[in-house]
Amino acid sequence: MSVYSQVYEGKAKIIYRTDNPQVLLADFKDDATAFNAQKRGSIINKGKINCSISSHLFQQLEKIGIKTHYIDTPQPHQMRIKAVKIVPVEVVVRNIAAGSLCQQTGLPLGTVLKQPLVELYYKNDQLGDPLLTRDRLFLLELATPEQVDTINHLALQVNEFLRGFWQQCGITLVDFKLEFGLDSQQQIILADEISPDTCRLWDTAEADPDRRVMDKDRFRRDLGNVENAYQEVLQRVLQAVNGKT
């Protein structure tokens, strides 16, 4: 596979063209950002860890019929992916109150929601990725009503699978972010990544509100041991996946 020019560089990945116009190469970076890139740093081996976790989770999701952009991993920090047109909407699924949900609603941290909450945000760094109403989403023509319904349905399916999977890993899935794209057949498929960068993960066996954190909140909140937490998540994922084979 020949790699050509850079298509896009985001906070966590660089995307390159390949000799196949339907295939792109995602290079996962060790860079870490928080608060809309106002805080910056680096996490050792984050690129390799997130690439590996995402690859395994995408493959597991494919097995239950959820289409993703994943093709394979030619290098530990690289993922070959299907070329998609990203829908400019970030989808957040919440199972437990944390982060901005607590700040904006007053719900106590750790409140278990009666049912999963799906929120849609405008994927626009300049505007601070604001929370969208359906009417605003349609006003901005970010997606069609049918696409939004599909995205909501897929997000809940992904949540149902991930909650069970992380539970097998001894991890509680608090909330997570997804992105979707349109493939060459104009079908909505899962894109981006699923990792400690995009999921809020708590060690189920740990009661302490700081020690239980196994995700990027360790970086956001200066809790330390960020690399160890990411590595522990990867090890538990590998154990769960190998246990299924």
From TrEMBL:
SUPFAM superfamilies: SAICAR synthase-like (SSF56104). This is Phosphoribosylaminoimidazole-succinocarboxamide synthase. Its EC number is 6.3.2.6. HAMAP family: SAICAR_synth. Pathway: Purine metabolism; IMP biosynthesis via de novo pathway; 5-amino-1-(5-phospho-D-ribosyl)imidazole-4-carboxamide from 5-amino-1-(5-phospho-D-ribosyl)imidazole-4-carboxylate: step 1/2. It holds the Pfam family SAICAR_synt. InterPro entries: SAICAR_synt/ADE2_N (IPR028923), SAICAR_synt_PurC (IPR033934), SAICAR_synth (IPR001636), SAICAR_synthetase (IPR050089), SAICAR_synthetase_CS (IPR018236). The keyword NAD does not apply. One of its GO terms (biological process) is 'de novo' IMP biosynthetic process. It is an enzyme of class 6 (ligase). Belongs to the SAICAR synthetase family. PROSITE patterns: SAICAR_SYNTHETASE_1 (PS01057), SAICAR_SYNTHETASE_2 (PS01058). It catalyses: 5-amino-1-(5-phospho-D-ribosyl)imidazole-4-carboxylate + L-aspartate + ATP = (2S)-2-[5-amino-1-(5-phospho-beta-D-ribosyl)imidazole-4-carboxamido]succinate + ADP + phosphate + 2 H(+). Keywords: ATP-binding, Ligase, Nucleotide-binding, Purine biosynthesis. PANTHER family: MULTIFUNCTIONAL PROTEIN ADE2 (PTHR43599), SI:DKEY-6E2.2 (PTHR43599:SF3). Residues 7-236 form the SAICAR synthetase/ADE2 N-terminal domain. GO terms for molecular function: ATP binding; phosphoribosylaminoimidazolesuccinocarboxamide synthase activity. Signal peptide: none annotated. Transmembrane segments: none annotated. The keyword Nucleotide-binding applies. Gene3D superfamilies: ATP-grasp fold, B domain, Phosphorylase Kinase, domain 1.
